[in-house]
Amino acid sequence: MRVVVADDSVLLREGLVRLLSEAGFTVTGQAGDPDTLLRSVRTERPDVAIIDIRMPPTYTTEGLEAALAIRAEDPNIGVLVLSQHIETHYAMQLVASGATGVGYLLKDRVADIAEFIDAIRRVGSGRSVIDPLVVSKLVERPREQSPLVTLSQRERDVLSLIAEGRSNHAICERLFLSPKTVEAHVRNIFSKLGIEEATDDNRRVLSVLAYLRA
Questions:
Q1: What is the location of CATH 1.10.10.10 in the chain?
Q2: b/e 145-172 (16+ beta carbons within 10 angstroms → b)
Q3: Which pTM was predicted?
Q4: I want to staple 37 with a disulfide (CB 3.0 to 4.6 A). Which of 6, 42, 193, 206 is the partner?
């Protein structure tokens, strides 16, 4: 899998490049600013661009804007945005840009190398990945009169994992539940939220996140 890494911190960028190379990825380019990133992506056409959300010159949303530009130009290129803080509105904006190959992770997640590598591979294969802490912040603070208040705690646990892009099989392993139990929870969740079930993982994630954002 071919990747481009964009972060204004040379130390972090070089660390990511080394980590990815050792994990078997081909790093086709590095960038410390949005313009260099976009040139690299247009030239190299990587499978995934890993992008810091805050980049020069203002260190606000340049990375997010570059990610959205990449998605607009070529939806087949996955984008994984890294953020220092939980900013749910940025995650929602990114997910809204397309149904496949997008991810939003906190930088702390890089410390769990296996999980980070798995997230890159999921984005590269066309799935959506949202940081568990971002999902938890959305799910655990339901609005008044929201159908979310009708969910049991176990259903919220399942919903969080669905929104992270986990398959039913992965949810079984994570929560130590049987496949039939997970299927029942998923049916109940979609019924209570008024969301039509879909077999496609990305549409399932997007429908949940779209509901939570509404």
A1: 136-213
A2: eeebeebeeebbbbbbbbbbbbebeebb
A3: 0.77
A4: 6
